[in-house]
Amino acid sequence: MTLLELSAEYQASADLLRNRLRALRRQLRQAEDPAVCFALQRRISLLTELLRQTNELTELTKRYYERGYWRNEKYTL
Hints:
single chain, mainly alpha, 2 helices, elongated
């Protein structure tokens, strides 16, 4: 698998995460129980971070071999 192919896989995962986050936010708007709201907020927070990282990795793997591309320091050794 090439990095460009891997980038497409990351993009597909990011799309799934976005859809799930939309669904969870809809549930949160409709929730009335504080415990349910807390659990949904926690899940949204975790998935938002995962989405951010997935987007970063999508960009990194897509542009890795471009000359002059500045890579995120978190993903370099």
